[in-house]
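Example with several molecule types.
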Amino acid sequence: MSISEAQKYITDQGSVGIVETQYYTFAEAPHELILECGKSLGSVTLAYETYGALNAERSNAILVVHALSGDAHAAGVHRGEDNPGWWDDMIGPGKAFDTDRYFVICSNVIGGCKGSTGPSSINPKTGKPYALDFPMITVADMVNAQRHLIDHLGIGKLLSVAGGSMGGMQVLQWVASYPERVRSAIPIATALKHSPQQIAFNEVVRQSIMADPDWRQGNYYEYGQPAKGLAVARMIGHITFMSDQSMEEKFSRRLKNGDYSFKFGADFEVEGYLRYRGDSFVRRFDANSYLYITKAVDYFDLSNGKLVSREKPIDTRFLAISFKSDWLYPSVQSQEIVRALQAGLADVTYCEISSTYGHDAFLVEVKEQTELIRHFLEKTYYGYDVLTSHDA
Amino acid sequence: MTHNHRLDHDIVFGLIEPGSRVLDLGCGDGALLFRLAREKSALVRGIECDEQAVQTCVRKGLSVLHGNIEGGLDEYPDCSFDYVIMNQTMQEVRKVDCVIQQARRIGRKVVVGFPNFAHFKSRLIMFFKGKAPVTDSLPYLWYDTPNVRFLSVEDFREFCLGKGIPVLEAHYLGQAGEIRRLPNLRALNAVFVLAGNAGAPDRMEDDEKNLS
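Resulting structure tokens for the full complex:
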């Protein structure tokens, strides 16, 4: 879209407007980042975006963390492009994460392929993409890297860390790793640890990539992506993001061309949708990144008192949100987070939102989430005093 | 609920020491918790099963868990709260026994408010009309009541006696205010204060630290 169109969009939607991705590079040799696996990584670049303004006390910063295939572009639009950020409905003036009040930061995780250092980045030792020489990263490593960025931005304590799915894991990891630096945490549609079912889905995802001969043991960068395997991997993902009901509503058994072809083409709309999603994913996401990041979330485990315990009390406030129809990260897993927090006597609010959108709900159920998040952040930021007007 | 409800709140509100840690089981829209937080500087928490009510609580800045009371208290450490409130909730709970046991484990005192099924109006309706009673404190018709337990003041006294639960205080509410005489006949609602399990006092300090 043109700049004038973009500006119209801004006024219409309460958008943060035109934004630009920034880059922060650190951990240059010999001060490399030591990873949980014992290996080191350096230098490390993080792609990030910020929205709103940091106040003088530096007390209004919120870190928004993305899901598996997300990126630093959470809100607004890039100049000359027309796709708003992945959580644009939630971040902006007057929105859940109100950029008139708060300074919102979003960075791409390490291991990713959207500007932060990952397996498709150039290995300084070889001058070629890392591929499988990239060390195995964990959610704790992602968060450690983000912590460097937050240090760099001069922020001592974050007002909040918020995110859904794998973003929710990073939220929990922030509290586990740096409780004194997080005033509040908003884990959405997430888990303390992956269940065998979730690991199983991720393993099928990885196997479908690795079974594609074009994957070439990860060394495909000169030849192009293992497109078939990666597309199938993403198709599996999309099935798990939707609910039975949302698929029924979206596709039912509707046919693309009115009749059965009696061939193996995409007869059903749902087939066409999955193929489209798979193909477009190949154009935007690195296959090796998908392998690394799915492994990182499988390794994630903050159960058994690792999040918070009576020996390790915290004053971080929590707002946990889950969605009734989400079967990928079912409510029972959010309730497990709540139980861990109850045991540690942490300040926690939990709401299971009635939604039929499945796991996708955290991206589309804007109204309910906005209600909860807005007021939760207000209370965290201003305390009870601000809420006098609501006393009714 | 009914216009009697505020009266319940006033009684319960009056029972809570300033600065206490309070857990309200079935906190509804959080009206009582909000008052306790603002006017008594209480550190308040709630559990509520209705999504809309939870949203209302969050709007008020309250920390509330969306879920059921039954099975929802197991993780709290002993003596986590000074008061556990169950106001107009107990009659909607199936495993009353377990919930009260848990409440007494995690609270130093348990405040239980419930409608009295043996109010004379109920008795009259039963006796003369031969119908399930509908009164100010039991406003529901038989087919849409959320209540699954129907008890009288006397029933609850007997329950506490039988279980060896010390009753510290009992308040009885009529139409317009507290009443003292013949509560089982005249009270629409009752508010009992039960002693907790007298959890180990040395653990209290830790709790305070955790919640501060």
